Amino acid sequence: MAAAGAAGFRLGQRVHAAGDPRRSGTVRYLGPVDGHSGDWVGVDWDGGAGGRHDGSLAGRRYFAAAGDRSASFARPSALSAGIALPDALRLRYRVDDFTKEEEDEMYVFSTSQKRVSVELVGTNKVRDKLKNFDELLCASVSFMGVSSAGSPEELQGLVPNLRQLDLTGNLISQWQDIFSLCQALPSLEVLDLTNNTMENDFVESPLLKNIRVLVLNNCGVTWELIEKLKVPFACLTDLHLIWNKLNIITTPVGKFVQGFDTLRLLNLEDNHIVSWDEMVKLSYLRSLEQLHLNKNKIKHVRYPSNLPSSGPLGDVAVPAFEKLQVLLLGSNEIEDFPSVDSLNLFPSLMDVRISDNPIADPAKGGAPRFVLVARLGNVKILNGSEVSARERREAEIRYIRLVMGKAESSDPEVLKQLHPRFAELKAFHGIEDEKPTSRTSGPQKMASGLISITLKCVGPSMGEKQPLTKKLPPATTVGKLKSLCESFFKLKDIKLRLFLEEEGCPLPQLLEEETASLVELGIGTGATIIVDEES
């Protein structure tokens, strides 16, 4: 038979190129190849490249590969079926003394050009510790060609106290190997299987209460498999599922994902998720505190409404995403303010990332940080930076000025729809509407309405100049301010750019719109503007 003739390889088996554990693939064909003697193994290499064809050769199709040039045929001797985990641990954390050849290479030349042996600091201590494998708590055997767990008794005897194991980039594909491994290591809590192409089914599974963190990044898993894994891994607190194309969440019973009662962190970054409706299916994960959705294609976010009066299991309904504190939405396609405003409805949300979205990019017509801070009333961390009490106060007052200066309508209902927190913030900060008439006139009236801003001149060809504090009318435009800066700092024939410094932002915000006034930009007393030159 072909399998026997191909040195014991089987279809679907994970292999790597002999001598190169980082070049791995899946066996897709076993047998003869027209025009070539002997048995061959057809391999579909990972990554969609690295081969010579798509599974067909000289007009004959042998198998269908993932990519146009991801497949090749190899002699069995050119491939490796991998090694067992205990062997990999011994290779990575070897306990033998250095060979004579290695010791001979460990020297330096003295001033008289004589060899002087080098004694590495702590060498003996490290050797003594590694001779006792039972002291090994964390181990990494990434990209070592591990294809099986090996003997459970041997593994347990070798590293009985292992707590963290990194198996990134190996050849493991069968869940029975993983179950066996977890049972053999009762102290194991963290298991990383990144870049192992796992099978999407298994027959029987034990209950693995010891595993708390499971990493399945780029493992080709489906949500149907995840639904099955919640049975053996019933005590998970962290589940990482990056790069698995999990854009659809299928629920075997009802509309919502059930189980995972202890899960606190779910990482679904970079999974081509388009619809927020798929995330609503996670509303009743009762312990979920962190949901990572960076690098997807989500355009809109809405807090779930019109949910059933009873929970998914018929119990009393709790609020959707009741315990969610961290929601990471960076690098998506969110472009509307209602998506931002809806984040206020999440009961416990405190940490939000929406950077690298159109709505948060002023260069693309999005909102600057102060607007986002003001619209997100409960957020304590925005885009990785803490929102201090001072920043919140200044952002909210500046936002009020911005809305008052650019109000699209005086109708309270329209304002509430466009700026849901505006009335609340205006009342909280005690800011009154400007009166159309006033008995105050002349210089006194003008002075009371001026804003005090600090100007810092930093252009390389402008020379060293002290910062200036000036009082300006709120209606001063960006273009007018540039002209004033030329006068203030005695600058000639230099094209200027103005930047607004904002607390919590690593980079100042460029003031691009020449006709925009200070009040329209939400700039008030205490603001700092950087005066630079165009490059």
Number of strands: 27
Task: State the fourth-level CATH superfamily of the largest domain.
Answer: Ribonuclease Inhibitor
Q: In CATH, what is the class of the largest domain?
A: Alpha Beta
- The assigned CATH architecture of the largest domain is Alpha-Beta Horseshoe
The CATH topology of the largest domain turns out to be Leucine-rich repeat, LRR (right-handed beta-alpha superhelix)
Radius of gyration: 32 Å
Overall shape = elongated
The helix fraction, in percent, is 10-25%
Family: Belongs to the TBCE family.
Subcellular location: Cytoplasm
InterPro entries: CAP-Gly_dom_sf, CAP-Gly_domain, Leu-rich_rpt, Leu-rich_rpt_typical-subtyp, LRR_dom_sf, SDS22/Internalin_LRR, Ubiquitin-like_domsf, Ubl_TBCE
Protein name: CAP-Gly domain-containing protein
Could you characterize what this model shows?
The protein has 15 helices and 27 strands. Helices cover 22% and strands 20% of the residues. The model is unreliable at 1-5 and 435-447 (pLDDT under 50). It is elongated and about 90 Å long. The longest helix is centred in the C-terminal third of the chain and has 18 residues, at 389-406. The relative contact order is 0.05. It has an eleven-stranded mixed β-sheet, with no helix packed on it. A five-stranded antiparallel β-sheet has the order 6-3-2-1-7. Strands 24-23-27-25-26 form a five-stranded mixed β-sheet, with helices on one face. The protein has four domains: 13-80, SH3 type barrels (Roll), CATH 2.30.30; 83-94 and 125-305 and 318-392, Alpha-Beta Horseshoe (Leucine-rich repeat, LRR (right-handed beta-alpha superhelix)); 393-429, no CATH class; 451-533, Phosphatidylinositol 3-kinase Catalytic Subunit, Chain A, domain 1 (Ubiquitin-like (UB roll)). Strand 13 (164-166), helix 6 and strand 14 form a beta-alpha-beta unit. It has 535 residues and is α/β, with parallel strands linked by helices.
